[in-house]
């Protein structure tokens, strides 16, 4: 039962989210009508409770009608952990919260995940396109690196910038207990700054930031046009660099191309080490697939990997998504991964991919089809004649792209991933019940993938 519940969860929320949050969940037992599930840390417990509690309960009830409640608790210290490689979100027992602010309790509120345990140097595959960025990251992780301050990593989406930053944070927090590392997205930086302003606690915020040894701010392009936050970042930046602390920043463009960021900030950003993460090559994609497949412990024939490496070229995240789908499928149906299975499982995805289908395109096509304005895709209106097409578009986005549920939600007026999940379930259900509706959706799918 538990393995079926887990398989459904994985299917529902996607492999990546599942691995981030739920893989370490351990079934403790059934007592009366209550199931107890154990999580290794309080942070994970609270998160899973909040985000997936309802889902867990309903899947358990579907498996076993006796179940009324699912209680999520923390595993007592010292208890065996089924996934020793992921034992703690932060290694070395250095204390979640001490060495990386990403895991601090007050960071739960806005849903920033802690450092991803998979993003280490060990799991980063090095090739021509990223070897320079990798070397710079390694150098910074080795300790004081004056010529590398700030380290500015830039490149397109899904090419490994966040992975490298987390790897540096892991390495530093593992090696030296006294080094405090703060990792946050630029978005998060802004939220914290703004809420500090609101609570009139900017002094504390400043002091806190200025007390770290290493500050990492991811996706700095988010600060374009946010002048107040840029100003604050600029001062923090100067204060830290002046006192010899390391700064690491990532963005989608080089400092000189980041228009909309103040000149003096851009200048300072570019005066340390600037490293470009280039688009992947076929060789790198193949090497990444090999590494991921062997870590997943599922045999994937070379031909399948060559096929994927040839087809899925945009970025590593999409490549990973495709491989994960294949592996999930193999697990679910207990079948080996073959080229035929790859063609079948990834059929829609590959066709859409060949056309580089985007969520925007899906939204446009679906709105036209149902004769509603495209802006309704992101609107809050809930009337059936608007909400249904929106759900169809979410469903198609899930089917035809490798975007995760949260990513899809964001494109639909910043909706929650659970909303997307419900849309997918709803449309699936309706398609099974209503042949006309199913035909309609299939037609849309064909239009989008021809
Ligand atoms: P970015 O921050 O540049 O948008 P990420 O660091 O989030 O990209 O990477 C996207 C996904 O691809 C992550 O799951 C990451 O682990 C994986 N990835 C990217 N580059 C590599 C690489 N060289 N080796 C292994 N995995 C990689
Ligand atoms: Mg990133």
Automatic annotation (TrEMBL):
InterPro entries in the record: AAA+_ATPase (IPR003593), Chromosome_initiator_DnaA (IPR001957), Chromosome_initiator_DnaA-like (IPR020591), Chromosome_initiator_DnaA_CS (IPR018312), DnaA_C (IPR013159), DnaA_dom (IPR013317), DnaA_N_dom (IPR024633), DnaA_N_sf (IPR038454)
Main localization of the protein described in the UniProt heading: cytoplasm
Renumbered residue ranges of the record's region Disordered: 77-113
Bias-annotated ranges (Low complexity): 82-103
SMART domains documented for this protein: AAA (SM00382), Bac_DnaA_C (SM00760)
Gene3D superfamilies named in the record: 1.10.1750.10, 1.10.8.60, 3.30.300.180, P-loop containing nucleotide triphosphate hydrolases
Positions with a binding annotation for ATP: 158, 160-162
Keywords: ATP-binding, Cytoplasm, DNA replication, DNA-binding, Lipid-binding, Nucleotide-binding
Region Domain IV, binds dsDNA: start-end pairs: 331-450
GO molecular function, one term: lipid binding
Name of a matching Pfam family: DnaA_N
Domain Chromosomal replication initiator DnaA C-terminal: 358-427
Localization (cell): Cytoplasm
GO biological process: DNA replication initiation; regulation of DNA replication
GO cellular component, one term: plasma membrane
AAA+ ATPase domain ranges (all copies): 147-351
Transmembrane feature ranges: none
UniProt domain comment: Domain I is involved in oligomerization and binding regulators, domain II is flexibile and of varying length in different bacteria, domain III forms the AAA+ region, while domain IV binds dsDNA.
PANTHER family according to UniProt: CHROMOSOMAL REPLICATION INITIATOR PROTEIN DNAA (PTHR30050:SF2)
HAMAP family: DnaA_bact (MF_00377)
Complex formation: Oligomerizes as a right-handed, spiral filament on DNA at oriC.
Function according to Swiss-Prot or TrEMBL: Plays an essential role in the initiation and regulation of chromosomal replication. ATP-DnaA binds to the origin of replication (oriC) to initiate formation of the DNA replication initiation complex once per cell cycle. Binds the DnaA box (a 9 base pair repeat at the origin) and separates the double-stranded (ds)DNA. Forms a right-handed helical filament on oriC DNA; dsDNA binds to the exterior of the filament while single-stranded (ss)DNA is stabiized in the filament's interior.
Annotated family: Belongs to the DnaA family.
Protein name stated in the entry: Chromosomal replication initiator protein DnaA
């Amino acid at each position: 039962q538990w393995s079926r519940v887990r398989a459904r969860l994985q299917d529902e929320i996607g492999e990546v989210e599942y691995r981030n949050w739920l893989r370490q969940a351990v079934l403790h037992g059934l007592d009366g009508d209550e199931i107890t599930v154990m999580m290794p840390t309080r942070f994970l417990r609270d998160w899973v409770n909040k985000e997936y509690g309802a889902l867990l309960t309903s899947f358990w009830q579907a498996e076993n009608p006796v179940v009324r409640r699912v209680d999520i608790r923390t595993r007592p210290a010292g208890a065996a952990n089924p996934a020793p490689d992921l034992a703690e979100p932060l290694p070395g027992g250095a204390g979640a919260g001490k060495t990386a602010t990403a895991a601090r309790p007050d960071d739960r509120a806005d849903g920033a995940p802690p450092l991803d345990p998979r993003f280490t140097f060990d799991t980063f595959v090095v090739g021509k396109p990223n070897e320079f960025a990798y070397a710079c990251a390694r150098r910074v992780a080795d300790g004081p690196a004056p010529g590398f301050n700030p380290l500015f990593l830039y490149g397109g989406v899904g090419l490994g910038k966040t992975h490298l930053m987390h790897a540096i944070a892991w390495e530093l927090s593992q090696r030296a207990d006294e080094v405090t590392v703060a990792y946050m997205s630029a978005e998060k930086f802004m939220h914290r700054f703004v809420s500090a302003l609101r609570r009139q606690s900017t002094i504390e915020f400043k002091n806190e930031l200025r007390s770290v040894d290493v500050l990492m701010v991811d996706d700095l392009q988010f600060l374009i046009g946010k002048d107040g936050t840029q100003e604050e970042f600029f001062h923090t930046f100067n204060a830290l660099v002046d006192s010899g602390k390391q700064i690491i920043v990532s963005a989608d463009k080089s400092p000189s191309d980041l228009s909309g960021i103040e000149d003096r900030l851009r200048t300072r950003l570019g005066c340390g080490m600037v490293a470009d993460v280039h688009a992947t090559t076929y060789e790198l994609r193949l090497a990444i697939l090999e590494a991921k497949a062997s870590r997943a412990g599922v045999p994937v024939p070379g031909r399948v990997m060559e096929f994927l490496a040839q087809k899925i070229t945009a970025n590593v995240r999409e490549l990973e998504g495709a491989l994960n789908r294949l592996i999930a499928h193999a697990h679910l149906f207990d079948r080996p991964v073959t080229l035929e299975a790859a063609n079948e499982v990834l059929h829609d995805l590959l066709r859409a991919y060949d056309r580089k289908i985007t969520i925007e395109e899906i939204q446009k096509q679906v709105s036209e089809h149902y004769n509603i304005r495209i802006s309704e895709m992101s609107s809050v209106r809930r009337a059936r004649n608007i909400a249904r097409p929106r759900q169809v578009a979410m469903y198609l986005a899930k089917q035809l792209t490798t975007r995760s549920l949260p990513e899809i939600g964001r494109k639909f007026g910043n909706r929650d991933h659970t909303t997307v999940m419900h849309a997918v379930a709803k449309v699936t259900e309706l398609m099974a019940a209503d042949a006309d509706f199913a035909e309609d959706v299939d037609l849309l799918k064909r239009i989008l993938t021809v």
